[in-house]
Amino acid sequence: MKINKLNSIILLGFIAIIGILVAQLLWTKEAFNIEEKKFSQKAHIALIEVAKKLYQSTNRELPFENPVRKISNDYYIVNIDNDFDPAILEFYLKTEFKKINLTTDFEYAVYNCQSEEMIYGNYVSLDANTKKQSTVYFPKHKNLVYYFAIRFPNETNYLFSSLRFWFVLSLALIVILLIYVYSIYTLIQQKKYSELQRDFINNMTHEFKTPLSSILIASNYLIKQEPIIQNERLEKYTQSIIVQGNKLNQHIEKILNVAKWDHSPLELSKEKIAVLPILNDVIENIELKNQGIAIVIESDSKAVYIHADLFHFTNLVYNLIDNSIKYCAEKPSIIIRISTENNFIKLEFIDNGIGISNNEISYIYDKFYRISSNEVNGFGLGLYYVKKVCNLNHWKIKATNNPTQGITQTILIPSKS
């Protein structure tokens, strides 16, 4: 169900970006067509004004018929029906094009009645440093005697430059689409590797549990046999097999649980629970396993209640205390301090352990993370589980080094919960 939902979201996102990109390209094309029409209109207006001024010099009126004809996208002819000076024509062209803000290079040619051919006039560049000798052919037109032709060789570049914003936006959308596709590809690959890793862990741990169960069954049967009971050394070895087997079994269960949590989130069954009795029960169980430890509870209230899952909160407390015991080089001494602060119930687990460097302390709740100088056996899953339970309950947890020795792990629980 979740996979189908993820695939649907990916597909919808992909379609949305493609749709936006297509719309952007269509808008850009339409904007180009509009700019092309505007350019053509400006050219017509400017050329008509040039024709008027050429007529004014002869004291004749401009014919009613439009003298300007557009032959192609960048080529125009203007019928004057009267002789004119090419130098004056160029002056008028420059003046009118500048007046109407038509800022692009142009070239012109004039029809010569004597030779009956188009005589190339000049290439007019906006950049004084640019000189271009053109060999462009200006075709001759029938039924026209006194006329000139105008060509805009850089019209396409001029139109593209006026649409820079549109093209930059389209390019940005294309880049976003490529990043999205690459991100989705990476996500799918990571998901695939994650599933392979989880399947491998599940298969590996299950394969371990089968022979381990046989070893524990055989060891428990063996330790009850009379020859083993009578031989202190053999009994000690057998007991060591059982203890280490149970410890290995606990590690395997942790790995299986983490794989299960990654596949489906933890489900919390919240209820109102008293904190102090749970702490006392956990401490009693831990003291049975670890002789000689000192665990003290300090509370500013005799009755502290929170709304939480009993099972997971008990495991959370157990993992924090067990972690403090494991990472202690001397006799473990742990203080569990309970107080109320700014609408929060604060639980502090203060130990006298080996401590953690400031560079590594922020990573201790990461999955599989173990301190570089750590020589204690484990998989780095205990504190990861603690962090996960806190996140699901919307609690805050952090670890800080004590001024002298050990660390303090603090959990802030909203009092309203």
Residues in helices, as a percent range:
40-55%
| Helix-strand sequence | HEEHEEEHHHHEHEEHEEHEE
Total E-strand runs: 12
Q: Going across the major beta sheet, what is the strand order? A: 1-2-5-3-4
Distance between the termini: 31 Å
Global geometry: rod-shaped
> Structural class, please?
alpha+beta
- Runs with pLDDT <50, length 5+? none
Describe this structure in words.
A hairpin with a 2-residue loop joins strand 1 (68-72) and strand 2 (75-79). The mean pLDDT is 79. The chain has 9 helices and 12 strands. The protein has helices at residues 2-56, 86-99, 155-162, 164-222, 226-230, 232-263, 275-289, 310-326, 382-392; strands spanning 68-72, 75-79, 106-112, 117-124, 147-151, 270-274, 294-299, 305-309, 333-341, 344-350, 396-401, 407-414. With 417 residues, the protein is α+β, with helices and mostly antiparallel strands. Helix content is 52%, strand content 18%.
For the structure shown, list the relevant keywords.
Sig_transdc_His_kin-like_C; 5-stranded antiparallel sheet; single chain; 3 domains; 12 strands; membrane; kinase; Heat Shock Protein 90; 417 residues
Topology, please?
Layout lengths: L1 H55 L11 E5 L2 E5 L6 H14 L6 E7 L4 E8 L22 E5 L3 H8 L1 H59 L3 H5 L1 H32 L6 E5 H15 L4 E6 L5 E5 H17 L6 E9 L2 E7 L31 H11 L3 E6 L5 E8 L3
Parallel strand pairs: 7-9
Antiparallel strand pairs: 1-2, 2-5, 3-4, 3-5, 6-8, 9-10, 10-12, 11-12
Helix pairs in contact: 1-2, 1-4, 4-6, 7-8, 8-9
Summarize this structure briefly.
With 417 residues, the chain is an alpha+beta fold.
